[in-house]
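cron nightly-structures :: item 1 of 1
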Amino acid sequence: MASIRLALILTLTFLLTACASTQTTEPRSAAEDPRIINQISGNDLLELMLAAGYDADLDDDGDIRWELHRDLAWILVLNEGQLLQFWSYYGAAGVGLADVNEWNKRYYFSKTYIDDDNDIVIEIDLDLKGGTTAGAILEFIYTADLSFDVWLNDLIGLNRMQAQFSKDPLTASHDAQ
């Protein structure tokens, strides 16, 4: 009798395990989507950002135009969708090469430089060529948002609340590299 009960328990356990392992569930959000992404279009990136609650739209080049508390930034879709580059600039008087170099020494995942128009530029790259997930792309976007905040505050000397009330959004066009 004990051996029959044990066999019945083992059989039920096996059946429950087998049924549970064959069920497929859809990810509840894009961040949980396990598919590997090697390239992405501007439209797909925009859809991902809007679903995550970001305020963005597509520009004429197919890049993302992203408004961050009245400051404009772009996520450029480069190399046939295999590279994403967060990009923004600020015309900041009083920021020199020593300040830019100090930023680049302190922060690992972004770079900043002074462009030909004497604007201070920030860039953050995400290479998709080796494969990534939607969750990792959203993490890149989140990191870009935080880095931009720190960049405005530490390098430019402006926090977003000040920026919101002190200037108009950037309206200059950009050239994809």
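cron nightly-structures :: done
Residues 35-166 form a domain with the Yope Regulator; Chain: A, fold (CATH 3.30.1460.10).
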